[in-house]
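Tokens in:
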């Protein structure tokens, strides 16, 4: 039996203010939300017609399982951040900074920004204990339902635009790109002297996505354990690269001449430095992974801050050591001429064997990053469907495995289509600025909620940190507009297209243009999905 847990009189969560009997009913109020979760809703369900076929009250207490421990969470942070970026972006950073010294400084600054952002997200995640990440924070902070009821739609609109951009482009494209990178490096040992055929890369990428989908659908605990093991192996691989550099240095007893004057030729252009920082932050992306799984975390008030405070610094230290390892082995010209710095490093240190060992290390790293990307993307789809921004069929939770199986399948299908299409790396680059737009909005929401939601917080950061992050986000959004305006404006234009979709299709207004047959189709598809996948719509 399909259970629709949203009352019929409030068909969507974004109807923030409902009028009944002349009184205002504020939906999703923080205090009421906690109280409502502990109170039975039989009377409301009967009024709304949410009954099972035999007339009894349906069992709608299905929820995501709390399986993530502190070790699992640290694994998701380290495994979600460390992907292919650290093995590819050193060339981009060095080409922008023109010196080893400034390049390392930019990597340190990127680590500080990621760490500061993680601190801000600690407060958000422990205060609003609901999965969905930026969607949850943006729509709650910008609804202004307490002071300005007529502005209640703003948070819903911004939340929908985030879902619009992330679900269909950013997250799906990221999973596709990472899977393609994983497949490309897995094939490299078998094609040392020639290029890997494109069709083989795509087929293997689809296989990688399929394996991840099965694993994540079967068990959150299994996925977390695999992520923990992969993260440990990634750290071992990073240590292996550092040891190779030390051994090479001990054997040759010399370093490239460029290392003796690390700041020689340093750029003086603020734009170049900012663009280098932009590339570094792409390598650090993933520090917000755990905020999409708050509801699946054990003892979230303690473990979320601990995991972020442990995971992000570990990644920062690894990144610095790997960059230094590259710099003491490879010259400035070698790095700039390399398509993948790690491959040149492996060839320089291990010879032909390096062309086998290093690709395996990178493929291992990217597989873990792809797992983290699917984990985040599927939780966003689930949260958006549960809150009425996507069809209800994607809000289901498997009755046995307690995983958001329909959301996982939906995310995988979109990514598989993008893998088949190919040539989507430029699309990811174009939407990079929009990612920081939503990061900035979420952290600005933290500042707003200090005044609109004055309830005690389990974890609270110094107000200067979110202010700093908002300013950094503004800088990271504006700079691409100045340096490469066409791709950035195109990305923002695609996001703005979501506004009429929200107004005329999603938002509950008299002028909404959505035939009633759409709602009937949605109900049928939800029943069919729940029946086929043994899932139940979640609250």
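Residues out:
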């Amino acid at each position: 039996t399909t259970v629709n847990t949203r009352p019929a009189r409030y068909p969507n969560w974004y109807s923030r203010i409902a009028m009944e009997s002349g009184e205002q009913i504020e939906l999703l109020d923080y205090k009421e939300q906690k109280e409502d979760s502990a109170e039975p809703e039989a009377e409301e369900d009967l009024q709304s017609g949410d009954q099972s076929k035999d007339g009894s009250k349906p069992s709608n207490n299905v929820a995501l399982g709390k399986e993530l421990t502190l070790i699992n969470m640290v694994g998701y942070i380290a495994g979600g951040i460390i992907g292919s970026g650290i093995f590819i972006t050193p060339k981009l950073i060095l080409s922008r900074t023109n010196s080893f010294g400034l390049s390392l400084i930019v990597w340190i600054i990127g680590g500080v920004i990621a760490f500061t952002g993680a601190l801000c997200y600690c407060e958000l995640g422990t205060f609003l204990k609901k999965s969905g990440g930026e969607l949850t924070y943006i729509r709650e902070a910008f609804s202004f339902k307490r002071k300005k009821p007529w502005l209640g739609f703003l948070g819903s609109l911004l939340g929908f635009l985030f879902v619009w951009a992330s679900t269909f482009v950013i997250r799906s494209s990221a999973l596709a790109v990472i899977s393609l990178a994983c497949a490309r490096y897995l094939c490299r040992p078998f094609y040392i002297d020639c290029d890997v055929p494109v069709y083989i890369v795509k087929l293997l990428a689809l296989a990688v996505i399929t394996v991840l989908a099965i694993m994540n659908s079967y068990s959150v605990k299994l996925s977390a354990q695999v992520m923990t093991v992969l993260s440990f192996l990634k750290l071992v691989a990073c240590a292996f690269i550092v040891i190779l550099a030390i051994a090479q240095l001990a054997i040759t007893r010399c370093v490239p001449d460029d290392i003796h004057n690390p700041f020689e030729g340093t750029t003086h252009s603020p734009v170049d430095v900012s663009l280098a920082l932009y590339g570094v932050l792409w390598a650090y992306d993933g520090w917000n992974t755990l905020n999409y799984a708050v509801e699946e975390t054990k003892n979230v008030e303690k473990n979320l801050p601990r995991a972020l405070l442990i995971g992000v610094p570990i990644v920062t230290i690894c990144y610095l050591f790997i960059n230094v390892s590259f710099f003491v082995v490879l010259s400035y010209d070698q790095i700039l001429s390399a398509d993948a710095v790690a491959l040149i490093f492996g060839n320089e240190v291990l010879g032909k064997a390096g062309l086998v060992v290093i690709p395996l290390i990178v493929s291992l790293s990217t597989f873990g990053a792809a797992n983290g990307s699917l984990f985040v993307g599927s939780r966003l789809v689930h949260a958006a469907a549960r809150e009425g921004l996507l069809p209800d069929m994607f809000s289901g939770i498997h009755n046995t495995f307690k995983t958001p199986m329909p959301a996982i399948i939906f995310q995988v299908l979109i990514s598989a289509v993008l893998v088949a299409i190919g040539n989507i790396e430029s699309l990811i680059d174009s939407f990079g600025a929009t990612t920081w737009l939503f990061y900035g909005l979420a952290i600005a929401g933290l500042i707003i909620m200090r005044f609109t939601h004055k309830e005690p917080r389990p974890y609270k950061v110094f107000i200067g940190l979110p202010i700093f992050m908002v300013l950094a986000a503004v800088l990271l959004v504006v700079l691409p507009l100045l340096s490469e305006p066409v791709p950035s404006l195109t990305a923002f234009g695609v996001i703005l297209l979501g506004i009429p979709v929200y107004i005329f299709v999603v938002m509950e207004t008299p002028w909404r243009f959505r035939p009633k047959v759409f709602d009937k189709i949605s109900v049928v598809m939800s029943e069919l999905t729940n029946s086929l996948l043994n899932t139940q719509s979640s609250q």
